[in-house]
Amino acid sequence: MIEPERRIGSVAVLADTDSRWKWGLGLARRLNPEAIVGFQFAGADLPSERQLAEVSISADAITEVSTAELLTTLASRPVDVLVVSLPGGGVQSILQLLAANPLPHRPLIITGYVGVVYERIIEGLLLRVGADVIAANSPHDLTQFAHTLSGLGVSTDALTLTRLPFLHGPVSAPRDRFTVTFAGQPTVPSSRPQRRYLVERLAEHARRHPDRDVVIKLRSMPGERATHTEPYPYDELVRGLGSARPANLKVVGGDMGQMLNRTDLLITVSSTAAVEAIHRGISTALLTDFGVREGLGNTYFIGSGCLTSFDQLDAGLLPTAAPEWSREHGLGPQDDPLPARVAELVAAGNLPPVRPFYTVSNAQAFLPTLLADYGVGTDGRPLPKLSLAPGSVRRAVRRGARKMYRQGTEVVAPMLRRWAAL
Q1: In this structure, which CATH number among 1.20.81.30, 2.60.120.260, 3.40.50.2000, 3.20.20.70 belongs to the domain 178-328?
Q2: Mean pLDDT taken over the chain
Q3: What is the pTM for the complete model shown?
Q4: Residue 233 CB neighbours (<10 A)
C-alpha cells in the first residue's frame, strides 16, 4: 500500500457541525495527520470547545470564510486535498463553485457520508457527483452507489471503498459493574411521548437490573450546537421522573468513544454509535419498539441480528451482530483502500475539470435555492454577502430559537418551579 503521507502535502477540511468535523478530520488524518487546515462557512455556529476537543482541533485552527474567501484562500494557499464534509447541498455548492472558477492548482475533492446511509440515498449521491473521490463507507454502500450511478449513465470511477474514520478496535476499561449505554439521537424518535417512553423503559430496565448501571449518553451538552436540533432533551425528561428515578439510571455527556470503552450493552434506535459498538464487538440492540421503519433508520440493520425490543432486553437478551452482515457493512477488520487511491490520484496530477451531475440545463428549478443557501449563484459565482437566501434566514431563525429554548428550559423553567414550590 502506498503511504499517503509521503505523497500528499496539505489537506483542507471544510465542515460545519460536530459530527461532520469528526468524519472530515478523521478522514484527513488518514491522508496526512501533519498538515491539516480547517474551514467553516462564516455565519454558521462553530461547535463548542468541548466538541472540538473531542476531535482534536481548536477553534483557532479553523478559518471562517465566505464562498468568495474560500476561493481566494485556495488560490493563494493551495492544498493537495479538500475534504468536503457538508450536507449534500453544501457539497453541490462547492462543486459548482470550483467548476465555474478554475484554480491554478485545484485540490483533489473528496466527499462522502458522515455515518450510515439509510434514506435519501439517490438524492444525496447525485449531489456529490463531480467530486474526484466519493467515499463509500462499506461494501454494501459501494454496491448500492455503483448500481445507482450506472443506472443513470454516470461514471463510477470516483467511488472508492473506505471505512468510517471514527471506528476503533476493542478497548478494555476496568469496571466493576455491567454497563448499559443508551445512545440518544436528537430527532429519532421525534415526539415527546415517544422520547418519554424511552426514558421510562430505561428506568424500568434499571429497576429490573439493580446490578447494572444504565447510562443515557447525551448527543450534545446543553447549549451546544449539533447536526440536528434536539427538541426534547433526555436530561430534562430524566429530571421529570423525580423520585421515581432509580439510583442506577445516570445521564452523561462527553465522547461516545470513551463511553463505549466501558459499555457492555449498547441500546439505541438507530444511532451511528451502533456501528461503533458492533465494530468493537459490543452487544448492540436496535430497538423495534417504534417499528422497523425507514424514517427511523433502523432498517439499515436488517439482517444484523441486533433488532430487538425492550421486553427482550429486560428478559436478559444480549444481541450479537451476524459476522456476514458486519463484514458487508464495513465493520470488524477491514482494508481501507482510500488513502492509497488518493495518493495515486494526487501523484498523477492533471485533475480534470469539475463536472457536477446537476447543471442549469437539467435542474433549472432545483439548483437556485439549493446553491443560494450556501452563497453560490446558478452561474457558480459567489453571491454578494448581503444576499440572504430563504434557507439562510431559516438557519438564523433556528439558531435564535434554539438559544431561546435553552434559556427557557435551563433558566426560566427551574425558576418558575422553585417559585411554585414556595
Answers
A1: 3.40.50.2000
A2: 88
A3: 0.84
A4: 22
